[in-house]
Specification:
596 residues
Length: 596
Amino acid sequence: MPSYRAPVEDTLFFLEDVLAIHRHDNLPGFSDASSDVLQAILSEGGKLASDVFAPLNLSGDREGCTRHADGRVTTPKGFKEAYTAFASGGWMGLSVPEEFGGQGLPHLLSTVMQDFVSGANLALSMYPGLTQGAIAALLVHGSEEQKRTYLPKMVEGVWTGTMNLTEPHCGTDLGLLKTKAVPNEDGSYSLSGTKIFISAGEHDLSENIVHLVIARIEGAPSGTKGISLFVVPKFLVNADGSLGARNGVSCGSIEHKMGIHANSTCVMNYDGAKGWLVGEANRGLNAMFVMMNEARLAVGVQGLGQSEAAYQNAVAYARERLQGRALTGAKEPGKAADPIIVHPDVRRTLMQIRAFNEAARVLVLWTALQSDIAHRSQDAAERQAADDRLGLMTPVVKGVLTDRGFANAVEAQQMFGGHGYVEEWGMSQFVRDARIAMIYEGANGIQAMDLIGRKLPKDGGRAMMAFLTEVQTFIKDHDEDEGMKPYVVPLQPALNDLQGAVLWLMQNAFTKPDNAGAGATDLMHLLGTVVLGYMWGKIAKAALAAKAEGRDTERMDAKLVLGRFFMERMLPETTLRLARIKAGSETTMALAAEAF
């Protein structure tokens, strides 16, 4: 049976030493997260993930969710108790303002918890994760009455939330949606239509489910300009806050999926369901994008979580599995064979996954920190710089971390040989579960197009230029430090590759858009590789400082080796990506559609 332990110790090091988050104690909520509080939160969150969520992962996958004849859905055995433990522990509202029942702590800490529970049990973690996204959207765009009505119960975890976008004919192109909203005399709307792929659309974990639904008001403009957002509860809410009649929304079926079997991914039918407008009419995407951007970052964390869980199990197996002898002579002469972890190609695989995991974990924490700064700082310039970083990194976190997370789950499965293909070992579940993260919340090709079409040229390229300058400054500040040379010297040519790609695209993509489309995914991964290299530079700097103080020397030595491995074996991928980008789109677009 697979196992998982939340990486509490590493995460503490990344927060306190690598990112030095206590330098931000001037931001609201940060001063409450002292070292002692931080350690307590991560320790307790790690226990919940490792001891409560993780043991249900394999059994939940096997049992799945069940839809009953009356439309009710029950989740696998143990899920309700685990969800209740999460909700009653206050984890749902960790970073929500205190006025709505939250704790007002940094969003950064909610991201840490997302990492832990996503690695422990992806399907189960999605129920609270979607609720937190819905909370974020209502906080920004909900009316005061909507906030008072829904947020306290959602923060408490007694009610959960969802996001309803996709329709059978309408995926990424939301302008095609057909769900309609008809105004009622009391100011509400009646919604009718069908949504598909709605995660956590119906279940038995909470008393009420608060659906955020995009629809088109009768007479609204066509396309995305006529989309509005509505809050549609499963049960109507009485004036005193108690639950009233059942609303006209129901689960028509549960999707039969490749993975995340324990999450109820539903076809949702809206039959004159009563809903209330969130924000302005015909500006629903503005409101929904708050939740979508939260979800994209959270999905990137899911990719990391599956990579981490798969790695932990692959390492445990590689230490135990006896197969062959080391090329340099027997390491376990008293046994019939050596453990496979002695073999260079096995080590290459495991180090490649771990080197990614550690840099990716710092990246998601660094990105979450930018979100906190952008929303909490009193300094306008600081807010703008953080918001620029956040926007630039969102497609990278979502696209690169989920692409690599899936690939790493496959590589970890490979360590088991034939056993990895057998369900009882649990490795196939990591592969199946990780696959969805590359698809939902905008498929990764869409993330790449968002990067190259929106994020790169936005504000005259300000965000990308600032990032290039930031990394160049880091290299310059440390290139005379002998200890840092293995981490900054290789970073320079990689940064040059990124600059070269941006320059080539500026010169060749805007007059010939297909060049942008053909190079988008390579640009996303080129940027992602440089970002991960930059994160390793930050990790190495902190590890060298810790070693100089005599702290945790053996663990810091391991990090420095992993950082060198990344710089030597993984960072040079940027040259390949640049070559692909410069190849342009001619051959990609040469074949006629019927020639495929």
